Amino acid sequence: MILSRVVRGATGVAVLLAAAEVAGRTGLLDTQIMPLASTVLTEAAGLAVDPEFLRDVSATVEVWAEGLLIAALLAVPLGVLLGSLPRAEIALRPLIEFLRPIPSVALIPLVALIAVTDGALKVTVIVYAACWPVLVNTMYGLHDVDPVAKDTLRAFGFGRLAVLLRVTLPSAAPFVLTGVRLAASVALVVAISAELLAGGEGGIGVYIVRAGSGYRIDLMLAATVWAGVIGLVVNTLLVRAERGLFRWHAARAGVAQ
Amino acid sequence: MTNTAAGGARRALTLAGRLWMVPVVVAAWEIAARAAESVYFPPPSAILARLRELWFSGPASRLFLSDAALADFLPSLGRMFGGWALACLGGIALGVAIGRSRTLAGFVDPLVEFGRAIPPPTLIPLFVVLFKADTRMMVATIVYGVIWPVLVNSVDGARYVDRLHIETARVFGLSRTVRLFRVILPAAAPKIFAGLRLSLSLALILMVVAELAGSATSGIGYELLYTQQNFDLPGMWGTIVLLGVLGFLLNSSFLVVERRTLSWHRGAGRTGTTDRSN
Amino acid sequence: MLDVVNLTHTYGSGPDAHQALGGIDLSVSEGELVCVVGPSGCGKSTLLRSIAGLVRPTGGEVRINGKPVTTTPDDLAVVFQDYSRSLFPWMTIRDNVALPLRRRGLDRTARRAAAAEALAAVGLESAAAKYPWQLSGGMQQRVAIARALAYRPSLLLMDEPFGSVDAQTREDLEDLVLAVRGHHRMTIVLITHDIDESVYVGDRVVVLTRAPAVVAADLRVDLPAPRDQTGTRELPAFVHLRAEVSRLVRGKPELSMTPSHTSKE
Lengths: 257, 278, 265
Prior knowledge:
The complex is a heterotrimer. Chain B is mainly α. Helices cover 79% and strands 0% of the residues of chain B. Chain C has a domain at 83-152.
């Protein structure tokens, strides 16, 4: 069963690559515009040991991780605070609802004028974008806490703080992690957008723009392959972490995407 | 009469109770910005004035939209909705097919996983090279970026249609078409709608990125670049506010449509599709 | 009309395989109402799903009017236990009942008329424009019965149709089945774990053994018609038959059986 899944999946990938290769070799696709699949894969393999590209990758990963970390450090405590103080939440909710839909990438030109350094620009925009999923999911998680569990602890004479630490936070944790996972992919999108739009010293986006200006479509595609791989790895790791840490949660709520 | 008036007053009061923070924050911002006198952080009054001047100084018969507003909004919204609609059609069709066929799912699963992992802006430079024409590049970016939530949610919705629904349809001999349109699609609709809503807000983001990156000659993103180049900070802030309002309106109007279409779903009290993402 | 010949079915393969049906032989003639009872988990539902063509049995054959069943037969309707899942929540009651009539080649007006008639037969004509979730469980099951009636099948299968409703509703629905059956002259196979019910409703009671199920007994129910919830259940013949079925279902004494009302298939 599992084997046949792997075989099928591999077949699907192989068929697509082979079709692209054949289309290129028979002239169906102009290789000037769309390079051969084999060329792209060879270039992608080459990029894996290309120190210049690796520097760009680590630049992207660095701003991405920094932005995500700051966003989590800001949004989780705020979410816990708002989630446990209904009055504060009601007061701030409209502000959140107005700020959240602002497309974070629209801030790039503005922040580019204000920010002192290129890194500060990227991190600021990433933090803005990554905050919302974490904040909203944290608040949601705090609301979702089973009141019976809270009452049980209260009945045994535990104070508010104890209830928060022993029941509320553990049961909200899976939601927080879901928020972080969503924020991680948003942050990657914004990081690369910022690199494309504002340039800067390095990054996958910067690399791709450079390759594009030299009409090296093969290199652009090869770098895109790696961008996909990074996205896939990050997402897989976070999904694994969610499943591994919170097995009880998936069984209870059947978390949606 | 008095009843409804009292009800209206009460509703207004509740609304005021919920929204009081907004004027407070705006006023605080106004005071702080005036005191700081920073070029980068203009006061809200200046932002609103600029916003009005840019786009909302038109005649009342046109909802106050100025010529510039029409020239900017229409192309932007056209690209956005065009790309979104294409992605929705493609995503739903493909997603339902994958969701209903285990064999097909086996073949394309890795491709879908990989495709959706690629951050869509990564492809903008490629699309710029491939389609020199602006609009095609922008629509391609939007379609690529927003198709994944629709696709993934459609797969999910179509895959987990209640077995008894399918068996009932089989027992009563419903044809494939009837089964698809009267059973599978409605059953998957709550998930599909969650995907559509998510993709609509993504479409707005990608529209802006594409316009910024593609050096569009019209559109809201173009206006953002233009104001930046002219160091028109109130204009930039105004454009950002406009985009926020637009995002808010898109999401709220979509929610209205969703509630209407899925009234049965809420009635049936099923909560299979909590969508907590942004 | 319906012939089940040496039907066997095994789920899975290898060491995990579970044989549900161990060779079932059963014949139902035109117009009969046959109840199938058996301990929970004995494969009653598998039997019904094989007859309906929803499960392809691993061995043996099902024939309807002499024709072997390979896919879901034309002339057959099913009422499932779980009405809330078998009715479509996105359609009104009327649409739920009318939908299957597309196969009968009726136009929209004719479908609506037939749906209205069937709803009237179960006493729900006023609920036509409502949605299933606006009705109580018993009413939803009436809708499912109306949907089957409107379809005018020659064979109606009912899978624990009253397993999820309260006792009072259950009695009402049992009488409803008896009433519509008289009107429509359908052949009915009703699967239940309720021994009382099988004796009360059936012309015949077929008792299955534990999995892998075979027919343990096939008893004729000789109770006068029309049946009556109180009167019939008082008759010595009823009490006697019920005791006999009960002994057969329980089988060997060391096999403990879960209380029938709480069990689930």
